[in-house]
Design brief:
The chain is α+β, with helices and mostly antiparallel strands and 256 residues long. The protein is built from seven helices and ten strands. The longest helix has 19 residues. The radius of gyration is 19 Å and the shape is globular. The two termini are 33 Å apart.
């Protein structure tokens, strides 16, 4: 099986949140109690019970016209997964750890029964801040591309339920060609349309504006891998880590 790509065309999303519900149903994730905070986006962010979230963003364009952007957010399934590099119990091509890359599809899947002594290193390794945790069980949870559905020839649940074509799934070469053709079409109306974060990911977005307008993290630069500084004591090492994190936050806060 060749590498697969889940393509998300934000121009076709109506924020019905069918994908969000389908994801919860397939993964048997409980509903969450939330509060209204002035937006229809609900819950406010991804959690260990919500792997897939529709983000709502309303803004005024330079010409004064109001614009709504509805954007599906989830794990990017990176070709070079920083979450796995950060996890002290995982290797990219070894399914014995909590996190590993499925060699058949490229999806980053997990077995959180193998999580141990968790200090959220996988979160620190992810430039998109995707992995979420059950603090009581100290286990990772995130989108796994419905790997159990893919194994039997089915597409991800979110794609299956999307009735507008905003989400589609298939072989990487076909999805790349589809994304490029759609982008060229959208550019005629939306000059800021772009591909995010790139084709070296298992999930690719066609955005109408910059990623920051869609409430998606931009290019966060180098991954936040665990820092090992030879010859430094714990206090000095902590200082080096703090300085590195400040630089990362400054870099990650810039628009792509």
């Amino acid at each position: 099986m060749a590498k697969k790509i889940l393509l998300i065309d934000t121009s076709k999303c109506t924020a019905c949140r069918g994908c969000q519900v389908a994801c919860k149903q397939w993964n048997c994730n409980e509903a969450e109690t939330t509060k209204f905070v002035g937006t229809y986006q609900n819950p406010p962010d991804l959690t260990f019970k919500t792997f897939n979230l529709i983000r709502f963003n309303e803004f005024v364009k330079p010409d004064g016209e109001m614009m709504w952007l509805f954007t599906k957010d989830q794990c990017r399934h990176c070709d070079e997964p920083g979450c796995i590099e950060g996890c002290p119990h995982s290797e990219v091509d070894n399914s014995n750890g909590p996190l590993y890359k499925d060699p058949k599809t490229g999806a980053i899947v997990f077995d959180n029964t193998k999580c141990g002594d968790c200090n959220r290193e996988c979160f620190d390794g992810c430039p998109f801040e995707i992995p979420r945790f059950d603090g009581n069980k100290k286990q990772i949870w995130k989108c796994h591309m419905c790997s159990n559905r893919l194994a039997v020839g089915e597409e991800p649940a979110c794609v299956k339920t999307c009735n507008t074509g905003a989400a589609s799934f298939g072989d990487a070469d076909k999805m790349v060609a589809k994304a490029k053709a759609r982008l060229a079409e959208l550019k005629k109306t939306y000059p800021n349309a772009n591909i995010y974060p790139g084709f070296d990911y298992g999930v690719v977005w066609i955005l109408l504006e910059k990623s920051s307008k869609h409430q998606l993290r931009g290019d966060a630069g180098p991954l936040r891998r665990p820092i090992k500084v030879a010859g430094l004591g714990p206090i000095a090492a902590a200082g080096a880590l703090g300085a590195a994190m400040v630089k990362f936050r400054e870099r990650g806060s810039k628009e792509d």
